[in-house]
Specification:
112 residues; Ribosomal Protein S5, domain 2
């Protein structure tokens, strides 16, 4: 069974890129848009600029784990795309978490 809180469709990604807003930080870039649903939908991306498949998968794992720590502090009703930058490669989870927290803080998606 598919998880409802994961972005999968190309149309969803395209809408977020075109109509959403973006914030860049040291290790990640965050695209976000309101979705008027009672939950957040997320997508984690790492392009080939990040490195080979092993490095891209590690970057996605770091971002997912960092998001897991932060998701309780986020407002609901957003579509989020989190993209890894190539600076993420040699970093620890705490560094990525701090970068994501900073990006979320600047977007206004964090609970007050």
């Amino acid at each position: 069974m598919l998880k409802k809180n994961v972005l999968r469709k190309k149309e969803d990604f395209s809408i977020i890129y075109k109509r959403g807003k973006s914030i860049g930080d040291r290790y990640v870039v965050l695209f976000y848009k309101r979705n008027n649903l009672p939950y957040n939908r997320t997508g984690f991306l790492a392009s080939k600029k990040v490195g080979n498949s092993v490095k891209r998968n590690r970057a996605r794992r770091l971002m997912k784990e960092s998001y897991r720590h932060l998701k309780d502090n986020l407002e609901v009703g957003y579509d989020l795309i989190i993209i890894a930058r190539n600076t993420i490669l040699e970093k620890k989870c705490k560094d990525v978490e701090a970068s994501m927290f900073s990006a979320f803080k600047r977007t206004g998606v964090l609970k007050k």
